[in-house]
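Below is how a single chain appears once it has passed through the pipeline. First comes the sequence as given, then the structure the pipeline wrote out for it. We keep one example in the README because the format questions we get most often are answered faster by looking than by reading.
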Amino acid sequence: MNTEVQSFIQKHDLLGCIQCGRCTGGCPVNTRTDLNVRRIVYDALDESMLDELAKLPEVWDCTTCETCAIRCPKGLKPMEVLIGLRNILVESGVIQPTVRDALESAFREGNPWSKPKATRSDWMQGLDVKIAVPGEKVENLIFVCCTIAYDPKVQVIAQNFVKVLNKAGIDYGFVGDDEVCCASEIYNMGEVGEDGLFEMMVEDGTELLNSFDTTRIVTLSPHCYDALKNQYPDLQAEVIHYTHLLKEILEDEKLVFTKEFAQKIVFHDPCYLGKRNDVYDEPRYILNQIPGAEQVEFSRNRERSLCCEGGGGKMWAETESHKERLAEERVRDAKELGATILAVACPFCVLTLDDAVKAKGFEEEMQVMEILEIAGKLIE
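Resulting structure:
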């Protein structure tokens, strides 16, 4: 067995797999693509198969929702095997043009969206936003996220958070133009390794964030939350998601929702907030403070939540399946519940689920809203 294959097997503990199939059985995208995680893990033990496995289109179907890891009785993370196979392709240069462009943009501009770094804070125009200064004490350092910073459809998340923080009198400061991608999706697209782009971005990001005198870093995206909390080992400040802070603000009555919002709301648990980090109660607490709203639950909720297919680099990697997307199945379930608002706490979920609502023709019956978008309407 060659050294490369042996290293791959040891890194991902492939010999620990008992081939029970629970990873494939629980995988949400397995129902609509050819992805068979158990088979790939088994075949990866064959030193002659590794390069061929990396070329399988279904390697890019994984959304890194972590269901496979949750289900594995041996405590393995089969999704990491797929990321490892993506890394083989990235190093060979044989990747989708959209993936290549995202990685190159992250290196050049500090974001995967091919947007100029100098326009990262354009969403702040017209708002009373406090920018943190390195070395000056600030209790809450706000980390925005590339998608929220650049996509007009989800900029409302950051804009409304500013309104919430100002209204509640919270001590805060945004990182501002110096902020760069957390590299969560860079990792998921396979740009990892001893000298990989992910490692470089983690090192640079850690140096930047540690330059601020802050008690905690507050992320707007669950993907940033997961990366900073779990993949930045040298960060000095505590990392929380904005739902932690908003729940705290509401509990302390620094902010009270007073406007009626007579809607039937169902909350979609983002994989990176729920399955990967066990944050389930905070979003529900916030939604339960909304006057006049009725809360309902999906049958598949919390750790059983159905993935929207927004993570794992899927914003840049296309799938070959033409079957119904999981996001479309999710909005169909919401419609059957009679929900008028499909609430989320993740920018990727907003984008995938909103597209699904349009694809299903449900626009007149249902609206996808990020929790901060709802909060913004209640304090205007």
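The CA atoms of residues 21 and 137 lie 51 Å apart.

See the next section for the split statistics.
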